[in-house]
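Weekly structure sync, notes
Attendees: PL (lead), two postdocs, one rotation student
Agenda item 3: pending single-chain targets
PL asked that the sequence for the first pending target be pasted directly into the notes so everyone works from the same version. It is reproduced below exactly as submitted, 315 residues in total.
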Amino acid sequence: MISSLELARLCGVSQGTVDRALHDRPGISAATRERILKTAARRGYRPHPVARELLDGTRTLVGALAPAEGGIFFLDLMNEVRRALVRDGLRFYLYLFSDETDFFRGLDDFTARRCAALVAVPPREGLRLSARQTAGRPVVSLLSPCRGASVHLAAPDETEAGRLAVEYLWGRGHRRILHLTYHRRSTAMRERAEGYRRAMVKKGGAPSVRKAAEEADIVRAVAAGRPSAVFCHNDWLALKTIRALNHAGCRVPEDISVLGVDNSPTFARLCPDISTLQYPMTAVAERCLDFIRGKPCAGPVGRYQIVERRTVVTK
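Predicted structure, written out during the meeting:
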């Protein structure tokens, strides 16, 4: 690939003449325009995206921010968003932040680069973004809502995930269903647990939500509740639960069934046997694009789906 300066030199013209030819502007002859365009095609010339945006006033860069730690789910979700945006002619740059201070550092950097929009997994729920930080550009928040002007939430109904998990496990004959989640606070965890509680009460069961960080906590929670099935907040916790139960002498699924949530592509390739709920990544990615393009849309997006594998059996 060559630069516009080199293209001008090859054609024996100025950079201004090259610009007129490439952007179909007046001021040059048809023969000169054709010669420049043919040379550009032959030499593989492509205009620099930043220079092109400065020239025509368009903005195609979308800045994305995700936690550097926290599992491959965030990266898989951002990759699905990237696919949707690139198909629509947008450019996608991902910044991995380590903490809230680093998040705002990345946000300021993207704002300075005149991004068309921002897509972010916020470092905490309820985060407020100022008008200066967003510069009036649309901001799409994933998983947890942010506050501020031009901020939109693209997320599924998490209470539906909890309800669907109970419906599925209850239909497989399980009546004692334990829900394991994490100690940290997040909208998705809170709403997923609430959906589980409501569904259990509606079925006439006794809901039990336990927060488990380590294998020992998981074993204690299972020993106290004596469930026939464990509904985990996500697939990583489901994997940790299976390992903890196996180390404690419990067989999965023969003694206890385990159900996760997410089914992100990378995790599914690593652990293809875990029964789970499919997070609607594609629908969330398309909703991000809708917000960026200014299409009116509201409410939760997509639906969870059961993915039956080998860690849940009929009781």
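Discussion points:
- The chain has a mean pLDDT of 90.
- Residues 187-203 form the longest helix (17 residues).
Action: rotation student to compare against the earlier draft before next sync.
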